Amino acid sequence: MRLPYMLVFAICIALGSLPAFAQEPTGGIEGSVTDPQGAVVQGATVTVRNTATNLTRNATTGDNGQYRLSQLPPGIYEVKVAAANFKTSVASEIKVEVGRNSALDVKLEIGGGTEIVNIVGGAEAQIERTDNVVAGVIGTQQVQNLPLNGRNFLDLAQLQPGVEKVEGGSFDPTKANYTGVSIGGQAGRSAQISVDGGSVVDNVVGTTVQNFSQEIVQEFQLGISNVDVSTGASGTGSVNIVSRSGSNQFHGNGYVYWRDDKFAAFPALSRLDAANGIPPLAQADRVPFDREQYGGTLGGPIKKDKLFFFTNVERNHQDGSALHNPPEGPSFAGFTANPFRETLFTGKVDWVFSSRTTVSGRYSYDDNFQQTPFAQATGITPRQSASGIFQTNDQLVSNRAHSVVANVNHSFNSTLTNNFVFNFVDFSNVIDPATVGFPEIRILGSQLWKSGTNYITPQSTFQERYQFRDDLTKIWGNHTFRFGIDYERTSINGQFAFAKPARIRLFDPSTPGLTAPVTEIATNFCAPSPSRTTRWASWRQTSVSAVAKASAPGLSNEPSGELPASPVAKASTVSLVEVSPSTVMHEKVSRLAADSSSCRNAGSTAASVKT
Question: 175 and 309, same structural domain?
């Protein structure tokens, strides 16, 4: 019985909502028609025409001389107003933006209907008078012409007051090179982001599940505050993106963007020199970096005034670098490679079925790969040793996303319109260790010194989203009523593993402010091989840690020594010896992994090592 009550409650909210379009990928035109004396003109015919596709819609002014056309595709329109005993007035270059009503008031002149009056200045910005939502639109001109480092169009969101971008890689390893939007001081992980009406939000960690080329974006709207209920499950703002479409003319472009450290000025206040505490092995006069982004677009008619296409392909080939400067081991400072590769594709088809019905479909693909440290600035520069333990702690992150969006817009009459959206997104993330089969060794203190198999790998996440959304708009006299439903089903599964095969945490008791740990238990949370139908598996607990006193050149001034065998843990011994003047760490981990049962072992074990 709860469902009917919830439905009635949702309808009541919709009835009280303002005439905003929120997350709909559409806009509108509204205004009044008057005669030369300012009296309202009833029954005037208002015709709007999209100049790119020749899509036309009609409306008639009511008893109060008002008209409104809703759920129009964003673009440039021509508006024609005709009435008996008046000249026909034509306003050109009327811009309809996503999520907004464009206001256009027309004053008719006495005369014959065959006479034309061209209205000048109709496309100028006007005060928003139908909506109290605090929002802004980043238009086509800004998206296509403002330079962006990395060409992520969401960077342009910072043009709006109270909006900042959030780097996804700063809070989760799956989000390297993904961007979130912080609105009004929020964290930036929960803003509702949609493209062509379909959600692209990552329901696990926030930001998005897919990157899009800057070239496919026509414009986007930022809902900062007072967003209405149709925005969805978000109280932290919204981003409403509309992709580009083809038109009656063929258009295309090709582009190459190249950035290289040879052309970059070195930051004056953060130079990598001794004055800034950089050890000799990490000192440099430039940060190694190279990026080539290249691609192209093509769009045009398949059938004039009826069927249009647009497509884009883009490739990103980036060779960055990560700086490692662990204070506990200056001999392990330096740069390591941080490559990033990405392929983006989008194809879109628009069909003007009739003057009342339009249909569009879009497919987008994103495939990217990166080797990166997590957390940022951690890890070491690999060094050779007899044991081979001084290896990179990086992660190998692979992301792949497919999305399909279909829109059907139908105008039943001049006062009743409907927009339906179907959205499907398939996202997969796989994180593997760059070093396999070695325990992670971490020196407590700054915890920047880390080597071996990354502690939180391997892991994988798979998301599959089905979304059905319908928005109905009814204009009744001076009132606009909006009804809608948004159904979204997301399936999430994957696997997480910790401390495989083991994690060793070393500390120097003389380090100021560092408290020696008493007990260390490492836990594995494992799942079977990635499966779309398998949920989380069982827990396994194993003892894989030891507490040791480390000493070596560049690590500590304490004398070398061994960790005595613990009476609690069977054969858990760690000895530290000098390997070379520049690389010092443990030479052997005696039977430590023997007590570390893997996910294949049944049951669970736990042990502690005390100092």
Answer: no
